[in-house]
Structure formats: C-alpha cells, structure tokens
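Take a look at this chain, tokens included, and explain the fold to me:
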Amino acid sequence: MRVGVVGAGIAGLAAARHLAANGSEVVVFESATHVGGRCATLTLGAYTFDPGATSIVPRGREIERVMLEELDSTDLVKIDTPVYTHDGRRVFHGAGLPPTARYCYKQGMRTLAELLAIGLHVETGKRVETIEAPSDGGFSLLEQTFEALVLTVPMTEAMRLMSQIGDVRRANNTRYRPCLSVLLGLDKDFHTPYHAVVAEESVHPLHWLSIENIKVPGRAPAGHTALVVQLGPKYSKWNFDASDDSIVEDALVDVERVLGPGFDRPVVQHIVRWRESQPDSVSGFESMNPPGSKLVVAGDGLEGGRIEHAYDSGIKAAKLLIGP
C-alpha cells in the first residue's frame, strides 16, 4: 500500500515508521525545512534551546520503549533535576510536580524526530495546500497518488483539507492555545536544584520556565545561563503579534520576579511563535476515524498535547490502515 503522510511531527513520523516497518511505501510531506514540529531545537551563538517541547515524559507509553530499545540512545539524557512551581513571586522548592522520568537529548529535542525519520522518505519544504480524491479511487496531492493518507497537521488544517474532497468529519472538541516562547542567553552564572518551574495558576503570564543548561549541561558557555520562557495562553493570545522587544521586556520582568535580579541584559534573545501550540481540549481518535477509512487523522489534537500522546496517535493511525 502506498501511503502519504502530511506532517513530519512526532505523530506523522510514528505513523510513517510503523507503516514502513510493515511493508507500506510511505512518503512524508513537511512544510518546514526540518522534521519534528514542536519537537524543535534552536542554536543561537553558543546557546542551545528547545523552544517547543522541552522534555519527554513517556509515563510508560510506547515512546519510552522505542527511545530506550529501538533508537540510538547515545545522546539520550535522563534529566535528574525536578520541576518546581512558582506563584509569580517565588519558587516553591518543596512543591514540585510528582517525580517521573523525564528525558531529553544532548543536542536538543529535535534529535528524537531525526532518529525517528531515519530510513523514511521525507520531503521537507513541501506544504500540502490541496488534496484530491480521483473517481477511480485513492488520493492525489503534490502530483503524487496514494492509496491512503494520514493527516497529522493541526485539526483546523486537517478539516480544511478534508473538506476539499467532501469529507465532513468535524473535530468539534479540539481547541488549541497559542504560545510565545522567549529564548534568552545570559551572561549570568545561575544554579538551582530544579531545571524548570511551572506556574501554580494557569493564568500567570509566565507559564513555564526551563533552565536549559541545568536540564542538559553544555547548553550555555561556562558562567552563562540559557532560558526558555513559555508565556501563558492568555498573554500569548493578546500579544501574539506584538514586537519582539516588547515581548522580551515583559518576559524579563516576570523572570526577575521569579528567579531574582540579574536577568535583565540578555546576550541573545529570540521569539518563537506557536500559533497552535498545545490543545486545550481534544477529540476522540475513534470518533474522528471510522473503521475502514483510507484517510486517517492523527496528532495531538486527538490524543493529548504531549509527545507521548502524539506518538500513540500516529501508531493508531498506522494500525487503522494496516491492522494490528
């Protein structure tokens, strides 16, 4: 069976990998110049950041077995510092998230996607704007024909593509939140017993703060600090199109309130805008994908907003097409 997969995030790569391992001919189309989606890594000068998903928390799901047993684990790091909470003024050192295994890669989160993509036919820089369903069966896109399709783009985009061939499935329960991710490299030596803090209240502008060089040593030069500041959904919604300088200025104010003084003069700064970051609510995979369908929808909008959920969704999509 020849299958087209739209989207080379974790769900798309999981689907493609499982399909290929079971004998299907698979082509993956990705609009960006690299694989991974929000499983991303960005290097600015001597600093390395994970601006989307900052770690992998598999919770015993399939992705954990794949990382530990199937993929090259040479650069896999088990993060040995916890996550704590903050209330906008101080960090609660004794009230962190429940302890659970967290992983990252030395060279960045994108490594996971690159490892999953090994051996796959992935065409980057290929945005799928239209799909067709010829009368003689199958699907057509970007001048190629397929017997089946897997759509792993955000649900809003998937529904737009499906509507072009008269497919009226609706992901009515799926809603996405935006996220502004502020990357800061600072000439400041900073040490903590935790690698990240999360807001105690979801309304706080500073939702998540990852100290990248504590999470994975080597992410910043000696005596420097690399921060990923992910701003909350309300702030991100109302300031999504604000200037970079304005967003950075606001983020620095909150960082200093939480971590203390000395974070006001970044050496490098950058904004990553995720318009459809994580889903606030999801639709059921089975309700969106009736048995026997040759066009399958997958992604975090069906299972949940974490990497392990996206991976499970991709595997479900592949199994729906080829069987368990």
In short: The longest strand covers residues 266-274. The chain has a mean pLDDT of 93.
